[in-house]
Design brief:
With about 400 residues, this protein is an alpha/beta fold. It folds into 2 domains: about 20-25 and about 280-380, Aspartate Aminotransferase, domain 1, CATH 3.90.1150; about 30-275, 3-Layer(aba) Sandwich (Aspartate Aminotransferase, domain 2). It is built from 13 helices and 14 strands. It has helices at about 30-35, 45-65, 75-90, 100-115, 130-140, 165-170, 190-195, 220-225, 240-245, 260-275, 280-300, 325-340, 365-380; strands at about 20, 70-75, 95-100, 115-120, 145-150, 150, 155-160, 175-180, 195-200, 210-215, 315-320, 340, 345, 355. The strands form 4 sheets. It has a 7-stranded mixed beta sheet, with helices on both faces. The protein has a 3-stranded antiparallel beta sheet with strand order 11-14-13, covered by helices on one side. Helix 2 crosses helix 10 (about 260-275), helix 11 (about 280-300) runs parallel beside helix 13 (about 365-380) and helix 12 (about 325-340) packs across helix 13. Bound molecules: pyridoxal-5'-phosphate. Pyridoxal-5'-phosphate binds near residues 78, 178, 180 and 181. Its cofactor is pyridoxal 5'-phosphate. One of its GO terms (cellular component) is peroxisome. Belongs to the class-V pyridoxal-phosphate-dependent aminotransferase family.
């Protein structure tokens, strides 16, 4: 044979233990890892579809919806975004995207690949959109879909969703929300808020490994999908197929793709932990830890990128890199000395901020205190005065 087995595969892989305090992935609890050791089942075996049904119930709780179509795209958060765009949009459909960071930019990229007529309202990273601004834009652009990012993990901004649903209904618009970096860390009420499509990722607040994008479609959203003139261009992300595979449409399940069996076990376990804790407690834990982190950072003389606390998502804190500080030296100090990940900025916030994630299993006061301790040391290394004396 001309291609021999590679040398690198003769030794075991190297996987160090790291504390992942960036904007994702977050660490998974041991129970979730253990769930993945369970034996494989066929992706249409009744024991497995039973587990899928239980996952669906957990997701209905997480999304706060009674909607029929609640399932997962096999793929990470981006797969949820892709599924949103390819199912809701037909060529020349107008989509209005509220852009205040990288996720709105990516959404615009994806929507344009589906040949939608993409309209953007733009704000600087860290800003959010007010209801009157959104209403003015809905009036001007008359879109079929409005796309918002609840937790903009590139800037740390929290976009309020409450109140947007009724506006969208007034103008006959579907409301799609990216809740990848926020769901579970802050309140979200799909039905009460009138959200038509929402998706998230398993590896952020849910604290399962990256692998799936939980997604929900309202009846209004499904009506738009069913009224399409042309078929959905992605077979893999076709929500009508996914809904059937996940047992959401009342017809017998057909083979669409092989579900990621072990990942579904992990999600089932992670959701059972979310349910045992309860959403209110989960939200309160994120708020309390974020407050502790923000107070500690301020005590170190650091400034938060978003000055108004009401506009911050507790799940991702953005910290201004002070003048004269090499941000990368700091993130390297975290990793090299403590095997703790914090990250730099992304897209519009690149070079300007550090980002610290507080998500799910990792969102504890001990982890906050550890991040603060390392941050002080790292800044001291660069002779930055961190005490307020
Ligand atoms: C992480 C993230 C995504 C993308 O998720 P992947 O799992 O990396 O594909 C999308 N939107 C937001 C807001 C995110 O934070």
């Amino acid at each position: 044979m001309s291609i021999p087995p590679p040398e690198c595969l003769k030794s075991p892989m190297h996987v160090p233990s790291k504390l992942l305090m960036g904007p994702g992935p977050s660490n998974s609890p041991p129970q979730v890892h253990q769930a993945m050791l369970k034996p494989l089942l066929g992706h249409l075996h009744p024991e497995f579809t039973q587990i899928m049904d239980e996952v669906k119930e957990g997701l209905r709780y997480l999304f706060q919806t009674k909607s029929d179509v609640v399932c997962c795209v096999s793929g990470t958060g981006h797969a949820g975004m892709e599924a949103t765009m390819c199912n809701l949009l037909e060529p020349n459909d107008v989509i209005l995207i509220a852009q205040n960071g990288i996720w709105g930019e990516r959404a615009a990229d994806m929507a344009s690949r589906h040949e939608a007529d993409v309209r953007v309202i733009k704000k600087p990273a860290g800003e959010i959109f007010q209801l009157d601004e959104l209403e003015a834009a809905l009036k001007e652009h008359r879109p079929a879909v409005l796309f918002l990012v609840q937790g903009e993990s590139s800037s740390g901004a929290l976009q309020p969703i409450y109140g947007v649903g009724p506006l969208c209904q007034k103008y006959g618009v579907l409301l799609a929300v990216d809740a990848v970096a926020s769901l579970g860390g802050v309140p979200f009420f799909m039905d009460q808020w009138g959200v038509d499509v929402v998706y998230t990722g398993t590896q952020k607040v849910i604290s399962a490994p990256p692998s799936m994008a939980p997604i929900a479609f309202s009846d209004r959203a499904m009506a738009k999908v069913r009224a399409r003139k042309k078929p959905i261009r992605s077979f893999y992300a076709d929500i009508t197929w996914l809904a059937n595979y996940w047992g959401c449409d009342g017809s017998p399940r057909k083979y669409h793709h092989t579900g990621p069996v072990s990942s579904v076990y992990a999600l089932r376990e992670a959701l059972s932990l979310v349910c045992a804790e309860g959403l209110e407690s989960l939200w309160a834990r994120h708020a309390a830890c974020a407050q502790r982190l923000h107070d500690g950072l301020t005590a170190l003389n650091l400034q938060l990128f978003i000055s108004d606390p009401a506009k911050r998502t507790p799940t991702v804190t953005t910290i201004k890199v002070p003048e004269g500080v090499d941000w990368m030296k700091v993130t390297k100090y975290f990793m090299n000395k403590y095997r703790v990940e914090i990250s730099g900025g992304l897209g519009p916030s690149a070079g300007l901020v550090w980002r610290v994630g507080l998500m799910g299993y990792n969102c504890t006061s001990d982890n906050v205190d550890l991040v603060l301790k390392i941050m002080k040391e790292a800044l001291d290394q660069q002779s930055i005065i961190t005490s307020k004396l």
